[in-house]
Amino acid sequence: MLHGRPVAVLGGVRIPFCRQNTAYNDVGNLGMSVRTLGALVESFGLQGQALGEVAMGAVLKHSSDWNLGREAALSSGLSPLTPGITMQRACGASLDTILTVANKVATGQIEAGIGGGSDTTSDVPIVYGQALRRRLLSVAAAKTTMERIGRFTNGFSLRELKPEFPGVGEPRTGKSMGEHCEDMAKEWQIPRDAQDAWALSSHQKLAAAYERGFFDGLVVNFRGVSRDNILRADTTLEKLSSLKPVFDRSSGRGTLTAGNSTPLTDGAAACLIASEDWAAQRGHEVLCRIRDVHVSAVDFVHGEGLLMAPTVAVAEMLKRNGLTLQDFDVYEIHEAFAAQVLCTLRAWESADYCKTRLSLDAPLGAIDPAKINPVGSSLAAGHPFAATGARIVATAAKQLKERGGGRSLISICTAGGMGVVAILER
């Protein structure tokens, strides 16, 4: 649990999430972060104010974005006296940035700060192999023009010009996240029709939430886009079932498709975190409080499911807080893949898994499906890796406000076999 004074979530903002190489193809992380932080500053009247910290997450970024948090803060309208930091824990990055700010607030180091994240898969860093990098460093160290030419041409091969693109595979297994999730779907016997039905529901719920105005104030226009352009309000089970598997195309047993997996996405999101005194002095409503955040990992290299770490993290966090899995009004479970969510739910219901892996005397049990991702999630909104955590926190906080109170469980799986989870209360 967070120790010290209560930590409040005052609200959040994000830009619409957009499919790779569409509306934000030439913006980059800095541009998306500046727009998002600027909108948050405007929403809360923070122009010219110095906050204790701006922590931003980013997974795919250029070396020039070495401190995205600080650079974005300098262009956000905040006082230039506001420090900034950049963090990375794959898909859990912005939940970690929020935790970082929350811990500083809880211990009294700061009064308020912003946690968020940005990611682009359209403007990715492209590098070259070690041979060319060494050659260019040698050229840069040369004293004369002729020496530079000699160092560049001596032994040069055109093969050195072949670029290296950032991959989405796990370095220790060579498998992509989708391939790992296919293994999980087979292990837990998650059928294709259940995955498609989950994806359809996500689109339907997100579309309905937009229509009733839930995202007014949460999502700000950017580049002429006002809604997530991945959202397909008119999709059907028939359309989803017609798609072919994309991660296991040869066995005849592949079930993950482009429709029940999150697409590569660009976007940014951020949340304002503060002490209750700071909020009260400025007339800001407390949407909810952060009760706890927890991180766990699994040994996916030796057989555990890559995306199963949230099952462990949630169990450990519940035990620490004396809660059961059913003690929540809203469950926000990141939908990296429909199969990943369904594997997680099935694991919590499994007496064997809960006993052998989670060391529990009984299964954690089932969750009311109506309480899971009530306004849609990543399958419909998209998943800019480092922005998802802040999106979910802002979404959960607003739902708790709408309900007039309650408790929310947040669960995010990440690359590297980790899970980041949290409890919000109002």
Overview of the structural elements:
The chain has 426 residues and is of the alpha+beta class. It has a domain at 177-212 and 291-425: 3-Layer(aba) Sandwich (Peroxisomal Thiolase, Chain A, domain 1), CATH 3.40.47. It is built from 14 helices and 12 strands. Helix 1 (28-43) packs across helix 2 (68-74) and helix 3 crosses helix 14. The protein is globular, with a radius of gyration of 22 Å. The two termini are 16 Å apart.
Descriptive key words:
globular, 17% strand, two-stranded antiparallel sheet, alpha+beta, 36% helix, 426 residues, Peroxisomal Thiolase, Chain A, domain 1, 12 strands, 10-stranded mixed β-sheet
* Overall spatial form: globular
The CATH architecture of the domain at 177-212 and 291-425 can be given as 3-Layer(aba) Sandwich
Q: Tell me, rounded to a whole number, the average pLDDT.
A: 96
The CATH fourth-level homologous superfamily of the domain at 177-212 and 291-425: Thiolase/Chalcone synthase
**Structural class assignment:** alpha+beta
> How many strands?
12
Number of helices: 14
**CATH class value of the domain at 177-212 and 291-425:** Alpha Beta
What percentage of the residues does DSSP assign to strands (E)? 15-25%
- Oligomer type: single chain
Low-confidence stretches: none
Q: Remind me, CATH topology of the domain at 177-212 and 291-425?
A: Peroxisomal Thiolase, Chain A, domain 1
* Helix/strand order, N-terminal first: EEHEHEHEEHHEHHHEHEHEHHHHEE
- Computed over alpha carbons, the radius of gyration is 22 Å
